[in-house]
Structure formats: structure tokens, C-alpha cells
Amino acid sequence: MCTLEKRGSLFVITLTSEDDEQHRLNPTLLSSLLNALSQLNSQVTAGTALVTVAHGKFFSNGFDFRWAQAASDQDGARHRLRHMSDSLRPVVAALLSLPIPTIAAVSGHAAAAGAILAMAHDYVLMRGDRGVIYMPEVDLGITLPDYFSAVARAKISSATAARDVLLRGVKIRAKEGMEIGIVHSAHDGAESTVEAAMRLGAELASRKRIGDAYAEIRKSLYPEVCAVLGLTTKSIVSKI
Fold first, then answer.
1. Dist. CA 20–CA 27, nearest whole Å
2. Is residue 168 in a domain?
3. How many CB atoms lie within 10 A of CB 139?
4. Hey, CA dihedral for 199, 38, 26, 147, is it positive or negative?
5. Which residue among 70, 88, 230, 240 is least enclosed by CB atoms within 10 Å?
6. Is the Cβ–Cβ distance between 85 and 62 less than 8 Å?
């Protein structure tokens, strides 16, 4: 459900789908993502970065509601939904803990849990001609897991924008995403978005930042998210 490969200085995770390329975050994909991040974390060196990509109309269409609704009753469906939420939590924690820069190339829609997955990266690059980032939970009558709200507050630049994204379910295109702090840059199409993400990744990797320090500084930027996820920070003392 996802692949991990090394391209020069870059680790590349590619979300894959067996059917309609919506890259729904079901238990199989979430387990695959966590395994890929664990494998990546054991291989990182100074001078590397991560780029996450997905092909097709969607970066990710959030949790797999079809899998949840296939349960025998409503209690079973709710249990499956909680299971997916509980399974995404360590994926977000792993992204925030990686000792290298991370970039999401959002070349299609990123909805709900898929938007949270994208925003858990350091940089979000997005195609400007098509695609939106949005949180439709308010329209679906679904409450947000605590770490969803924490990630949104950390990554959206103003309370007004956060209100519109979370309480109105506003669909954010690349230009608006740049204005409210979610999106780093906008690009002409899917291919140019991925190419720009690769260039940015190579640029960031070339600076060969010290891994532990990078991870700890990142965590210090988002104390609320880290507290919700149970991530601790530690002091890194320079050897110079």
C-alpha cells in the first residue's frame, strides 16, 4: 500500500492504491506507512530528506469509510473508525520525530485524515491548477481526534482560518493554503509539484543538518501536538 525507495539523497514514500487511487487510510496502508517510516528512521544519515508522493486524483481521501461501514453493525463501524484513528496517531508521531526534513507533494485532493497526514510534514507543496485540502468532518457529523485539532492549530496560521477549515469545512486551494500557512508553494500540475518537492528535498538534504537537533527543534515548535501524542523533547548539547 506504500513503497519506500532511496533516490540519491532522498527517501521517497509513494502511497499506492489497489483500486481507485484515493489512497484511503485503512489499516493496511497505515501499517505499511508506519513500517516504512520505521525502516527509513533506521537508515537516515546527515544529508537526507523525505518526500511523500501519491499518484492520481487524490493525495489521500482520509480514512477508509467503506471498510468501517462493512462492519456488521454500527458499534463495529465505530470501532473500525477508532482503530484507523489510533493507527494514524503513531504515523503522525513518527513524522514529527524523524531527524530529517519531510515534504508532502500534494498533487491531488487531501481530505480529512489525508490532510492531517500532509500537514504532519515540514513542508506541503501543492498543485495550483487542481486539488484541495479540506476537513469535511463538520459536514459528516464526526468529531475530531485530539491530535487532528492539535495538528490543525499548529499548522494553520490564524484562528480565523482554523475556524473556517474546521467549522465550515472550507476547501482550501493552493493559493489560499499559502496565505494561511498550510502550503509552502504552489505549482502548475501534478508532475511539476512532485519535481519541485524533489528539488526542495535535495536542497534541504544538502545542508546536512544534525539529525537529533533537527528533530528536537521541530518538536519544540509544536509543543501542543507533541504533548497530545506523548512525544518528549530532550536537550541536545553541542560537541563544539
1. 17
2. yes
3. 10
4. negative
5. 240
6. no
Instruction: Flag whether 237 is in a domain.
Output: no
- CB 213 within 8 Å of CB 46: no
CB-CB neighbours of 191 under 10 Å: 11
Chunked in runs of 10, what are the mean pLDDT values of the chain (240 residues)?
Answer: 96 86 94 97 94 94 94 94 97 97 96 98 96 96 96 95 97 97 96 97 91 93 97 63
124 to 10, 120, 121: CA distances (angstroms)? 16, 9, 7
pLDDT in tens, 171-187: 999 999 999 999 999 99
Sign of CA dihedral 201, 207, 212, 218: negative
- Half-sphere exposure in the Cβ direction for 172 (13 Å, CA): 32
- CB-side exposure of 127: number of CA atoms within 13 Å? 24
Cell of 120: 504532519
Q: Given this model, what pLDDT does residue 239 score?
A: 47
Which phi and psi (to 5°) does residue 102 adopt? -130, 140
Q: Has residue 240 been placed in a domain?
A: no
Domain containing 57 equals 2-229
Report if residue 239 sits inside a domain: no
| Distance from the Cα of residue 234 to its chain's centroid | 24
Residues belonging to the chain: 240
Query: 146, exposed or middle or buried, with CB in 10 Å at 0-12, 13-18, 19+?
Result: middle
Tracing cell 524533489 back to the chain, one arrives at 198
CATH number of the domain that residue 211 is part of:
3.90.226.10
Give the other-Cβ count within 10 Å of 209's Cβ: 18
